[in-house]
Amino acid sequence: AVVSTQSTGREKLKLQREKEMSETPDEEGWITVTKSTKFGASVESAQEKKKEYDRKMEKRKKETLHLYSFQDREKRKESLSLLKQKFQEDKEKIAKMKCARKFKPY
Question: Could you tell me the pLDDT band of residue 44, with boundaries at 50, 70 and 90?
């Protein structure tokens, strides 16, 4: 029984050292990566990810104002036509600027 308690104590110390090493970077800034659990990520990190996902979904629901899909399509078409119109205006501005910049020696 004494041998088994010593081995579990050693294992606990080993796990504790690995945990400390994984949390703190060394003098060059590197963090030692170790296998922490048999089943992957911890429960806390999974809960944090779930909360973050829920916040994103809530935000997305607030952003969607349209009830029907055709409203989204119309909105996209309007925004694209507006972008095309702005592009044409900018194109004309650039052409005018280029004409005004030409070299006329006489």
Answer: confident
In this structure, what are the phi and psi dihedrals at residue 102, rounded to the nearest 5 degrees?
-60, 145
Which band of pLDDT confidence, cut at 50, 70 and 90, is reported for residue 10?
confident
Q: Which residues contact 31 (CB under 8 A, 6 or more apart)?
A: 22, 23, 24, 25
Q: How many CA atoms lie within 13 A of 91 on its CB side?
A: 6
The overall longest dimension of the chain from CA atoms, in Å, is 107
For residue 21, give every residue at least 6 positions away whose Cβ sits within 8 Å of its Cβ, in sequence order, or none. Answer: 32, 34
Whether the CB-CB separation of 7 and 23 falls below 8 Å is answered with no
Cβ-Cβ contacts under 8 Å for 24 (sequence gap 6 or more): 31
> 46-55 as b/e, with b when 16 or more CB fall inside 10 Å?
eeeeeeeeee
Q: Using the predicted structure, report yes or no on whether residue 66 has a pLDDT greater than 90.
A: no
CA angle 61, 82, 77 (to 5 degrees): 55
